Amino acid sequence: MILQLDLNIFQIASVAIAVLAFGASIWLYRWVASQPSSNKRIAEVGRLIRSGANTFLGKEYKVLTRFCSVAAILILVFLPGPIWKGNILDNVQMAVAYLFGTVFSAIAGKVGISIATIANIKSAEAATKGIKPSFMSGFRGGAVMGMSVVGASLLGVTLVLLLTNKTMALLGFSFGASSLALFAKAGGGIFTKTADVSADLVGKVELGIPEDDPRNPAVIADNVGDNVGDVAGMGADLFDSNVASMAAALVMGVALDRANGTTMNAAMVFCYAAIGLLASIIGVMTARMRDDGSPTKALNSNTYVTCVVFGVLTALATYLFNFKWQIWFASTIGLAVGVIIGIASDYFTDDTKKPVHEVAKASKSGPAFTILSGTSYGLMSTLPAMVGIGISALAAYKICEPLGPGYAMFGISMAAVGMLSIVGMIISNDAYGPIVDNARGLVEMGNLGDEALEITDSLDSAGNTVKAITKGFAIGAAGLTVIALLGAFISEVNHAAEILGKPLITGFDIIDPLVFLGLLVGAAIPPVFSAMLMLGVDRNAQRMVAEIHRQFKEIVGLKEGKEGAVPEYDRCIEIATIGALKELVPAGLMAIFATLIVGFIGGVQAIGGFIAGNIVSGLIFALFMSNAGGLWDNTKKYVESGHEGGKNSAAHKSAVVGDTVGDPFKDTAGPSINTQITVVSLVASLTATIFLAFSLFG
Amino acid sequence: MILQLDLNIFQIASVAIAVLAFGASIWLYRWVASQPSSNKRIAEVGRLIRSGANTFLGKEYKVLTRFCSVAAILILVFLPGPIWKGNILDNVQMAVAYLFGTVFSAIAGKVGISIATIANIKSAEAATKGIKPSFMSGFRGGAVMGMSVVGASLLGVTLVLLLTNKTMALLGFSFGASSLALFAKAGGGIFTKTADVSADLVGKVELGIPEDDPRNPAVIADNVGDNVGDVAGMGADLFDSNVASMAAALVMGVALDRANGTTMNAAMVFCYAAIGLLASIIGVMTARMRDDGSPTKALNSNTYVTCVVFGVLTALATYLFNFKWQIWFASTIGLAVGVIIGIASDYFTDDTKKPVHEVAKASKSGPAFTILSGTSYGLMSTLPAMVGIGISALAAYKICEPLGPGYAMFGISMAAVGMLSIVGMIISNDAYGPIVDNARGLVEMGNLGDEALEITDSLDSAGNTVKAITKGFAIGAAGLTVIALLGAFISEVNHAAEILGKPLITGFDIIDPLVFLGLLVGAAIPPVFSAMLMLGVDRNAQRMVAEIHRQFKEIVGLKEGKEGAVPEYDRCIEIATIGALKELVPAGLMAIFATLIVGFIGGVQAIGGFIAGNIVSGLIFALFMSNAGGLWDNTKKYVESGHEGGKNSAAHKSAVVGDTVGDPFKDTAGPSINTQITVVSLVASLTATIFLAFSLFG
């Protein structure tokens, strides 16, 4: 059976499914909000967290408004070409698309924070009734974020193309999403680790008071950090990847369609992305915890449901609409490899597997051995993902190559779309983590009893395990997306080259020293970028530790926990906020300027190498840092649960050092690299025309 | 003035200068040996170190004999082509050249160990007379190694080409040097860090006895380690780089000469390499310590003398023999960039500069912050070198490109030759480090008094500073060399392609998914390789710590230092030796097999990407690990000298953790990556013909 449908139909269907996702999001929001909550202490702490998160978001968005306004003006003047030389409408559309991208991402982040700071309270209180209701509040809270982020990305991409009919505007939209993600992820990452590290350092290490103890002035900031870093930041990150993968696929799909006089390839992108969202909606809405009470199983089994639904529905659509089966294969391979990368990440971080056991054992000899063994396993963990991404790209390319010129790279972009198809489910799982982490804190601070604490502990631990998988997945998806963006980059460059009457680019030869220079410099950016962020956390944490010390010294009775001795939580939140914003700007600008400098020196060829080097080293460092961090976190928990000497043993002290090192690795630097890669690729694609017209050696 | 000389004259001159270097080496050896020594205790400890080093070397060479024999047989059967298909003589020559390379490298290592274990005694005893004689014994001891390594490499390369007249045989010779270097560097690196870490862990940390205390059963092994790791290993490493750079330049130079009917380019390679050695001889023989008594200045100023002599003499030769000035420029740029990279490494590790001060400050908050800040600066330190290598390659390429086809890549290879021209001086400086480090231990064990200890401390500290510079230099040189090897790889592939009637390779396009797959997998090898080595150190140290514990428990009176209670030093040396050899083999084979697997799957294109990815990520990890390790080492010393609380403060405890993490970084994993890169490039070049004839997707 073959249906001939217009591209518009697919676009309208995409809008409809995006709206459906918003509907699901609203329903879930209401469901969570309607859950009972009565404990006043928890409500008060919850209010503090919420207001702290809003403080951060408010200040961050203020800084971003300034940054994005400047960027928008630069785009208006220079992109896609100098405004005085080209079509003014193009530049206006580009600038508006860019702003559109930032606003969509900002709204999605805001929604996420808003629900997360409700769901944490609900999940905490539900923990007194049992694991199932507590899980459902946490999961459905996360799902609100998942549905709105993916709904917004699909809606945004569809509207931009419908309204402008220009793929270049898609890159503008994507760049808007990226620049917001860069700041949200890096800024949130610095905030959350500043607070986490300082709270632990003074509370657990110096004073020996438990985690989440309300006497600790940094405890609210710590809980705020989970929200702004993991919920808002991670949401912005995956919004960005998702938009970028669709944009890359559409740039190439539309180019193919133009060349062949069809609309089939663009239609396919919309169709697959919409089906991915639909599958995620189904996965999210049917998620339940079984009677075995295992939150990990509940989270994972629904991810698999989503994968299967996606595979089946896209096959059906491919049959119905006469799409190319080769592309369906490419897309499915992408999804499968994403799952495999996730499983590999899980192996290196799971506390039932060898790496955690070995690191725990090495910890007995001292913290240096925790670091050395953890670093080693973290480095090893990069191999499966690198091989997986390489093979999926190769397979997608080779399968689609026979379809004709241009299809090979399009196949890679569709593998990325396939990998990201279940992103709605992934975000839901990921946002679940910080919500139940917060819930655990609230249970502690609200004195809800040991049973509730045990329940939230078990939910939190599942969150950590799933987080490792979803992070691996997010990194893999970013990798494949950026390879696809490299294809989009060439597409755009050649479009410009035709206009300028310059020779077309056919590729980037490693033997060309311009390409090689780009490769070397591009590869150096992720380590430098992550170093800048980590030093930022370091500096910021030092400021905050000083403040905590001050409070314990100056507020009478705080250390002893006397009635009425309340810490100044706000001061800590303020320090973390201001510091985070101050530290993230240089790192972000460094990445952007490095791209521009390489472009102006070496031209398009150097930029091609630069992007490739950036992807390769970015993937390695992102994987290494995320996995090593997760490994250390779980090693600490593993030792705390009684292994290798248990709590307060020598191994435990070493494991705590490992965890402290791992925190900025896994929650600040590692995941921010993802966004850094996308930003660099998009800056390169957008400014390609300029480098084509002018560069020192190119 | 223009002299027309035959290629043979240059080759004979090279042999003559190599012989001159051997003469210098013998003179220096005799000078060192003739220095007075009378202390019996020192003589006894010196004997123990010497015999321990010989034990290690003996066992290592036994393992290597087996490994290299197998490799030689495989080469005989398969390379350059299957023996049943090609010319038997080719295969025999290749196998013999390979064995030749391994033997030359082994002899140079043996000579180095032999003099280092004499010079340490002489330098220790001379310390009672003043800093100048002590310095001279240490430096001239190192210079014996420097002169013999570079003499051997020049002699070997010249003889191989003279006897076979085949550039392919040069790659075989180079591969021999590489396979020995891989094992010498990695094996020695595992040995030295096993001993160092275990000695510190039990001695300094657990029992609180000073470094180099003779009661510690690991103390001799620790001193042996300095010799086998830093002297023999590093010598093999630079022997390897030096041979590889000459081989790459000759492969391309001879190809150019054949195409143009001249012998000028090959002559130039010999001429420049010989002048480099001559400049190093002059630099070494004129090295003196000034009256200011600064060993760092003495070491550095002579490096600069060598650079200037090289620049002037090569300019003169270029004028005299009518060589191309563009190539002289390329070569000089290489040397200049090498020096710049060294200086950048120095900035990140010098204890008068900001990074060390910041890490020391952060250490006050605990070991996690030592690690985080040190990691960050280590990551940042990669940028200047990556940019420097990229720019020097670009400049060399662009300057030589107008000379005609093939000259551009030849220019890069000559930049590498230029960078490595002063390698004789570099090795001398580098080998000086472990000699005076040993001398310090001997002064301590022989109770030569505080003044002598202070002198050797100051010599040792200079050794550490210079080591950071020479390591940066060695990594930069390896980077440029391997880029040149990529050129040699293409040369060889196309030579084979012509014979097989296959299309010629013009380059490696990043957009080709085979190249990209290679890029991703190649980039993952250095992290995995270094992780395997570090885990090896970890496992080995655990075994050794258990042995030290056993001895302190079972040998009565050892802990208290009773007369007659002597530890079993031999057992520790044995454990370190056996463990090191056991741990290094899998890592080395992993790198080689990964190359072969990628080649058989993706063919020549995938291998091109694989080499590039391997270079890029290898450089980053080598720089990161070497510099972070050096930074932590100097931070510890900086704190110990009274900053941030001084010895036994919280900052000091943290700094010790940093140093322990840094040790395997800087002495095992980091510098071994150099060799890993060269091995991979050479395996790829040698097996290129096979992949051309058969591969799954290529």
Q: Your description of this structure?
A:
The structure is a homodimer of 698-residue chains. With 698 residues, chain A is an all-alpha fold. Chain A has one domain (7-693). Helix content of chain A is 84%, strand content 0%. The first copy, chain A, has 18 helices and no strands. In chain A, helix 2 runs antiparallel to helix 3 (88-126) and helix 9 (325-349) packs antiparallel against helix 12. The longest helix of chain A is centred in the last third of the chain and has 72 residues, at 569-640. Chain A starts with 6 loop residues before the first helix and ends in a 5-residue tail after the last helix. The model of chain A has no long low-confidence stretch (mean pLDDT 89). At the A-B interface, helix 5, helix 11, helix 12, helix 13 and helix 15 of A face helix 5, helix 11, helix 12, helix 13 and helix 15 of B.
Looking at this protein, list some descriptive labels:
homodimer; 698 residues; mainly alpha; 0% strand; globular
Can you lay out the helices and strands and say which pair or pack?
2 copies of one chain form a homodimer.
Chain A: H1 7-33, H2 40-78, H3 88-126, H4 131-164, H5 167-207, H6 219-260, H7 264-285, H8 295-320, H9 325-349, H10 354-363, H11 367-380, H12 382-400, H13 407-420, H14 423-445, H15 450-500, H16 513-554, H17 569-640, H18 650-693
Helix pairs in contact in A: 1-4, 1-7, 2-3, 2-6, 2-17, 3-4, 3-5, 3-6, 3-14, 4-5, 4-6, 4-7, 4-14, 5-6, 5-16, 5-17, 5-18, 6-7, 6-13, 6-14, 6-15, 6-17, 6-18, 7-8, 7-13, 7-14, 8-9, 8-15, 9-12, 9-13, 9-15, 9-17, 10-11, 10-17, 10-18, 11-17, 11-18, 12-13, 12-15, 12-17, ...
